[in-house]
Amino acid sequence: MTAVLLLSVFYAVLAFADLNFLSSRGRIGPGFFPQIIAVALVAFVLHATVVEFRRRHTDDAISMDWPVTLFVVAMVALLIIASHFLGALPGMVLFMLLALFVLNRGRHVTNLLVGLLLPIGLFTLFRHTLNAALPPGMLGLPF
Amino acid sequence: MEIFDQLLLGFSVAISPINIVYLMLGSLIGMVVGIIPGFGPAAGLSILLPLTFGMDPTGAIIMLAAIYYGAMYGGTITSILLNTPGESAVVASTFDGYPLAQQGRAGPALVMQAAASFVGGTVGVILISVLAAVFAQVTRGFGPPEFFMLVLMGIVTLIVLIGDNWRFGAISALIGFALGTVGVDLETGMQRFTFGSAELIGGIAFIPIAIGLFGLGELFYAFYQGLHRGGSGGIIQYQSEKHFWPSMRDWIESRMAFVRGSILGFCIGVVPGAGATVASLMSYSIEKSSSKTPEKFGKGAMPGLVAPECANNAASAGSMVPLLTLGIPGSASTAVLLAALLMWGLKPGPLLMEQNPEFAWALVASMYLGNMALLAINIFAIPLFVTLLKVPYRVLAPAVILVCTMGTFSVHGSIIEVWLMFAAGGVGFFMKLYGFSPAATVLALVLGPLAEETLRQTLIISRGSPMIFVERGMSLGILIFTIGVIAFGYFMNRSRRLAKG
């Protein structure tokens, strides 16, 4: 909640400092709508913070798998970086193989097959069937 | 008669071989999207939207609409066989669907949900055919005050229906509005919140945000919940049943549920911000309260499955009415559809049916065909989807990540947008974690520029007086309805709190 409050205040400061509510001709200016939104946003976040503080909300009992979640987040970042530098197909294959060998342990043949065939299938679909743009990579590889 | 001619025109466009292929493909993909836990139609539409860029607009929208209503069909399969709703709109279907399956009646339950979805969807499309043109006529007199009030009504309804967490819903919507103000102010040409970045001058790109919030965010949250650890052991096997088809008694018991669920669902779907989840839950409660045997509900009553299924499918058809006739999406899914329409240069609104009748009526006609296709797919291809249910989430999820990432890149060929999607995924995860509403953010992001434009125009017309909102009949009517929704939400929350003690 603190992060949301800080971002809301940051938005409000920019809306009031940089943008005018009325233009020089006395008409509605570029800051009119952002300033209304900023005031409402800060007010609601403050209200919600107070209410949540009173409730002293505790975490519910759902299973919290932070390590795997963080691993998946890191893998997505790796996919974007690898696609950007190596190109779409090598990036996808690298991501799939790494992700599957960690998440789906012990099933090497399945992981290898899915990790290779799925990226090739998707690459063919995007590049050749849909004629869509894919990250070209910086190595000049044809895929 | 004119409606009949227009429908014929629509069918003549929709029944082209390529459009039929798109329709079937969309229906199948929609079913698959529906059965993946945590993935709703909004996520499916956002992720698959980039794949349609190479198609012609009519075919693409036919496919996307089929994904949208196909997801409603698919979501129930997991509700019945696994007690895990594919998305929130089919939660009510677990109440009686799963008990039916436990009693060895999964076959009849699956057939009845398919029939209910078909009836709800078809009644919804018939009502669209009849009412869309009337709506378009009525809304032709709408000016900026009415459009601003409609936007406000949509957002307020969505927030109110969130329930106890309405404050977080309001914050989510305001974040969406705030994101919508990024870019150049169209009236003065001044840059707002761009920090000198050329990428932000055109505003925050919608597709990366939608894919991030709905696709990646949901996926991160599913891993956080430990969904990747689960197998498919809980699936109830139905093939071994002696009686796959529903009995005559099932049909007779549920006959009024078909009617009530479909009509109620459509009416709720038409209201911007309400949608399929509210429709199905409300329909379930009404069916239970009007039943002669309410004690059977929750223990495997067929009308308890039929009513919400009819309602959620009719609601998804109903939500197309404000989208097509006003250009105002009533839900996150229709917001994605609106973004798709705008991308193809089609401007939904009162004049869409007049200026682009082939497109508008082809879409309506395709929905008739889509419902028929989905009925057949639902009954005869269930084993296929059950097999898909057995694919572990830990294998399925990386594949979805690939489609999200490459799909985002393919929109504008921009790696910055891929990073934006990644960031939105993180935000979406935390929003889910702390009870915020990604749907409200996306809806407000789409509606924000319209809200700002119409509010400014309204105040220019009225020379700054907000009284214009109560001086115009239509605007006043929408305002009164919005206040009614707020009052309804307040009393519902209060009675819920009192019931909890």
Please, could you describe this protein's structure?
The complex is a heterodimer of chains A (143) and B (501). Chain A is mainly α. Chain A folds into 2 domains: 2-55; 66-129, no CATH class. Chain A contains 5 helices and no strands. Chain A has helices spanning 2-18, 32-55, 66-86, 88-103, 108-129. In chain A, helix 3 (66-86) runs antiparallel to helix 4. Chain B is an all-alpha fold. Chain B is built from 22 helices and 2 strands. In chain B, helix 2 (17-35) runs parallel beside helix 4 and helix 4 packs across helix 5 (91-102). Chain B is globular. Classes of the chains: A mainly alpha (143), B mainly alpha (501). Chains A and B meet through helix 1, helix 2, helix 3, helix 4 and helix 5 of A and helix 8, helix 9, helix 18, helix 19 and helix 20 of B.
Poorly predicted runs of chain B are none
- The whole-number mean of residue pLDDT values of chain B reads 85
Helical amount of chain B: over 70%
User: Rounded to an integer, what's the Rg of chain A over CA atoms?
Assistant: 24 Å
Q: Give helix and strand order of chain B, one letter per element, not per position.
A: HHHHHHHHEEHHHHHHHHHHHHHH
Largest interface: A-B, 60 and 56 residues
Topology, element by element:
The complex is a heterodimer of chains A (143) and B (501).
Chain A: H1 2-18, H2 32-55, H3 66-86, H4 88-103, H5 108-129
Helix pairs in contact in A: 1-2, 3-4, 4-5
Chain B: H1 2-14, H2 17-35, H3 41-48, H4 57-82, H5 91-102, H6 106-139, H7 144-160, H8 166-180, E1 183-184, E2 191-192, H9 206-224, H10 248-270, H11 276-290, H12 302-318, H13 320-326, H14 332-343, H15 352-355, H16 357-380, H17 382-389, H18 393-412, H19 415-434, H20 438-461, H21 468-471, H22 473-500
Antiparallel strand pairs in B: 1-2
